[in-house]
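Here's what a typical entry looks like (Protein O-mannose kinase-like):
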Amino acid sequence: MGLTSVYLILFLSSLICMDARLENECGIGQFKIPGLEKCHDYLNCSDLNNIKIGKRIGIGSTKIVHLAEWNGLDIALSQLVNKNFTADFDHGLEMLEKLNSNRYVVQLVGFCKKAHLLVTEYHRLGNATSILSVIDKKYGSNNVIIRLKLCLNYARILQLLHDGPAGTRVMCDSNDLLKLLSQMLITNDLELVLNDLDALPVVDKNSGIKVICGSKELYGDFVAPEQKWPFNGPFKLAAMPSYDEKTDIWKAAEVFKYFISNIDSTYDWVQYRLFNLFKTCKSPEPHLRPTAKYIVSVLEKIVAEVSLMKTEL
């Protein structure tokens, strides 16, 4: 076996071992954000009465988000703003509790259910709609590795949603690229963490349970074909066929294309290697699209090859 093959195997092994490090070090019902020396129990209603609320950093149809301060540490405070969306807010909190041990989900810091408040870790770089400008500013044009790792990062998020402890979940609040990117935050290490978990309905194929995202007709090339009204005449929610998590795979191809757009021409072969993956993700037949787990395995190998190539240059 050549030295190159040995390096490749070692690099792949390190990526595979990342699965063992996906969980945070704290136990159930605890958090540890920068500035804390040890894990702390979730903040409760009494704790939240004593935090300092600062500027608004986000607002949507369901909640408003403020930068806040607890014991001198920055946190993000979310509050329900429309009681019509109470179920969505509560669902988001439930998902945070179920998935919070994973490094690819924003850390839950505390909550007060009766006041419809929840607190999460604050990430100063904001959501992923600005991710390309952030990496270009830090790395310049020589950023193919970080762009590929973003693809792998997003694939791991999908793998968590599709095969994680909360069952098989579908990212429903993702009908265009910018909306999907806004669901994630950028960490200081330029990783992506899922932040908005208000619309993650469950699929249970054994019980025949599938989903319909929202109550209105969906349009555009970004949404999967099976998410569009398939009949003549006006849209009727009761007659709309349901679908499964493979809608996320259809959209993933566009996310990956965005992440690797305008890379150095030296790495055109990367685009070529990904072409077949993108093509299968865009299969009109959902069952022919790959799983998130398979996509992760393909991207791991490509990241390893590019990293090795850069090392040898």
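Residues 215 and 237 are 6 Å apart (CA to CA).

More examples are in the samples folder.
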